[in-house]
Amino acid sequence: MRDVVAQMHRWWGEGEPFARATVVATWHSSPLPPGTSMLVGPDGAAIGSVSGGCVEGAVYELAQEVTDSGRPVLERYGVSDDDAFAVGLTCGGIIDVYVERVDPEGFPELGEVATAVAAGEPVAEVICVAVDGPDPEGRLGRRLVVRPEGSSGSLGSARLDAAIAEDARGLLAGGRTETLRYGYDGTRMDEELTLFVSVHATPPRMLVFGAVDFAAAMARIGAYLGYRVTVCDARPVFATARRFPEAHEVVTDWPHRYLRTEAEAGRIDERTVVCVLTHDPKFDVPLLDVALRLPMAYVGAMGSRRTHDDRLRRLRATGLGEDALARLASPIGLDLGARTPEETAISIAAEIIADRGGGSGARLTSLSGSIHRPRSMRPAAGD
After folding, report:
1. How far apart are CA 181 and CA 164, in angstroms?
2. Does the pTM exceed 0.85?
3. Which of 54, 60, 52 has the alpha carbon at shortest distance from 86?
4. What would the pLDDT profile of 151-203 be if each residue is shown by its tens digit?
């Protein structure tokens, strides 16, 4: 997404109109999540994808038409007729794609969005993608850019702008992209206006505790998946940037103290994942006592089943209840037969992905039904 915004900004700066096609809703077995975009440039170049290749040709043609006409279009693609393989999704899903022309006159706030995305600052773009009935006020295609503090642009009324700005900031905090519906005057859950809230959030965090070989492999795969990775250990001789070159930062501090400080500073959210690789009760028990009281996406701890049982006993003594303890993934990772640090990191990453997406971790050949589940908007693949 970051690369798409950067390319948009370059073309926008040149003053030539181009088209952006964005997935705004999905059903069933859709290959890509809402917020995924494809650009069709002034020179006809296509960048990005909306379906992994299934409907790109049809979207490309529609994008060229929209660039010429200037009129946005909301188009649905899915397998429903004999022409499915020509313009449909062969995976059996359905997607709504919003196609719009982008130029400095119609999207003067793009520079603001691009600057925020490049700086890693959270920003949401709200677009009116559908109007139920006549649109005499020209609401279709209007947009509002929302930041944690302040907004720019307008969707047509002050009350509507205020309502959606409040809701968009909630989505920003959780890093979620969603489609919402409002009345013309900002009434929530009404059906008159369909607004797509595209969130450009800061990358989710992966906190790896324990400066061991497994942590180096975990930092490498965490960064690959799009997390901002921090490795933390209380021992300065081991917690060095040289040992963890793929980590975005290496911190020397007591793990529980560091996590509590980050939480109090507001730098922990519901997308954050924690991997405890310390193997030492004096580190991991105080740390897990803090972690399991926070609303995070995933908390896992390495160790044998005997270590796990001892850890649970110690954590119960701190006052943690069974609901909190049930959130602990321990022993950490999926059963892949992993042995090396790299293989173990893959098993941990697989568990994080399965937990986030609602997967079972079983082989797809042994399952029936849809391969693609509805995606949570907490994923690491965001900005």
Report:
1. 10
2. no
3. 54
4. 999 998 899 999 999 999 988 877 889 999 999 888 887 889 999 999 998 88
